[in-house]
Design a protein that fits this description.
By secondary structure, the chain is of the alpha+beta class. Helix content is about 25%, strand content about 35%. It has a single domain, classed as Anthranilate synthase (4-Layer Sandwich).
Length: about 325
């Protein structure tokens, strides 16, 4: 690393611009509702002051991180033993009627050989149409990525979110459209979202679509809510996280406890799959931090998750996890 002590928050918004906040950040327990503030929390949502108000805000350009060299990383081979054990435990929980679905995480680790992890930020401004670039840097620690998953966007009582679940390689797109297991997994997510949000407004669910992300395709269902009244952003964040795509079904204290234990055993980074957002003069936009790299000093982690339901098969899920991590590495050129 370069010994960088600066802090940054980065997020691409639906309008196509990528906001950069520069620290040191002032921290708050609740949304300040003035100016610009970033929301950064871990998967457990137990950070005391998740709202970060930057000293300066600007729009990301090609020159902002151009001085940092892309990192060279030595990767460790990821053995399947740990994931296999958790997969079997989830299947047992499904057969016992505790869960219908859960989302284990497999994490591949590497060691920085040369370059700088800030070099991963160089191309965030080039995020494609279906991706939201995001990043957080605090000295020598941080994370960044290109997520396709919107947690929610809120503007003047209109609440937009999505169901994103079901994965295949792009060359399998034609048969993917009829894959009963992938469709079932997606419908778990979409139907659960619609049911959970019906108490805050009138829900409009669009047709299921296929989202093309280059090497991978996903099922994608846009969902919009016309809210009945006002709800705080903090309330909505806790209502939405974890989404059915990243969390257990049903989502209860017991099933969340199992999920957190499985994530910890599989060494999932604390911020993987967590909400990351930006409040910008009355408008709020948050994404789910998947498809990214996480680092602490010279240790780098690339995690991937998969939805396990009764119809899931170990070899297929392990293959899907590897495809997702390969896509992340390719997006960064590492």
């Amino acid at each position: 690393m370069s010994g960088n002590k600066q802090s940054y928050a980065i997020l691409k918004t639906p309008k196509g611009k990528t906001l950069v906040g520069v620290g040191p950040f002032k921290e708050f327990k609740e949304c300040p509702h003035t100016g610009v503030a970033f929301y950064k929390n871990n998967f457990a949502l137990d950070e005391v002051r998740p709202w970060k108000v930057p000293q300066e805000v600007f729009e990301l350009s090609a020159s902002d991180f151009a001085q940092f060299n892309k990192p060279s990383i030595e990767w460790q081979e990821l053995e399947p033993d740990g994931f296999t054990g958790v997969f079997r435990e989830i299947n047992e929980a499904i057969h016992r009627g505790i869960v219908e679905k859960s989302v284990p995480v497999a994490t591949e680790f590497g060691r920085l050989l040369s370059g700088d992890m800030l070099g991963l930020l160089r191309d965030l401004h080039l995020a494609g149409e279906n991706f939201y670039a995001y990043g957080w840097v605090d000295g020598d620690d941080g994370f960044c990525g290109y997520t396709p998953e919107l947690l929610f966007h809120l503007r003047k009582g209109r609440f937009k979110t999505m169901a994103l679940a079901g994965t295949a390689q792009s060359d399998e797109r034609s048969i993917f459209a009829f894959d009963e297991k992938e469709i079932r997994e997606h419908e778990y997510v979409a139907q659960t979202l619609v049911a959970s949000l019906s108490d805050i407004g009138m829900v409009k669910r669009s047709e299921r679509q296929i989202m093309d992300l280059g090497s991978l395709v996903h099922f994608h269902t846009p969902i919009e809510i016309f809210m009945y009244g006002d709800h705080s952003i903090d309330f909505l964040l806790r209502k939405m996280h974890p989404t059915p795509a990243l969390g257990p079904l049903p989502r209860t204290v017991e099933t969340l406890k199992y999920l957190h234990e499985w994530r910890e055993r599989l060494r999932a980074p604390a911020h993987f799959g967590a909400p990351f957002g930006a409040y910008d003069h009355g408008e709020f936009h948050a994404v789910v931090t998947i498809r990214g790299a996480y680092w602490q000093g010279s240790t780098i982690a690339v995690p991937s998750g998969c939805g396990v339901i009764e119809a899931s098969r170990l070899t297929n899920e392990w293959r899907e996890l590897g495809l997702k991590r390969s896509a992340v590495k390719a997006s960064f050129g590492i």
